[in-house]
Amino acid sequence: MVIASAAIITTAAEDSFSAGYLANRILGETLPPKCATLGHPLSSKVIQHRGAMVSRKLVEGIIKSG
């Protein structure tokens, strides 16, 4: 399930989803729904900030939570 978030700007939503999805593929995940488990929360956080970048610490937290 994807949880709704308060969007400030959605410019980088697709790019950040793709980055999370591809990162899971690179890490060895092969099932598309499992790959999306990193794409969804990453894009959710990115749209809550101005600009396309979030901190590395935030990304690492998303990866750890899993």
User: How many helical elements?
Assistant: 3
What's the total number of strands? 0
- State the end-to-end CA separation: 13 Å
Largest β-sheet summary: none
Contiguous low-pLDDT stretches (5 residues minimum) are: none
% residues in beta strands: under 5%
Rg of Cα set:
11 Å
Q: What overall geometry do the principal axes of the alpha carbons give?
A: globular
Task: Explain the layout of strands and helices.
Elements lengths: L12 H14 L5 H15 L9 H10 L1
Distinctive features:
single chain, 66 residues, mainly alpha, 3 helices, 59% helix
What does this structure look like?
The protein is mainly alpha-helical. The chain has one domain. Helix 2 packs antiparallel against helix 3. It is 59% helix and 0% strand. The protein contains three helices and no strands.
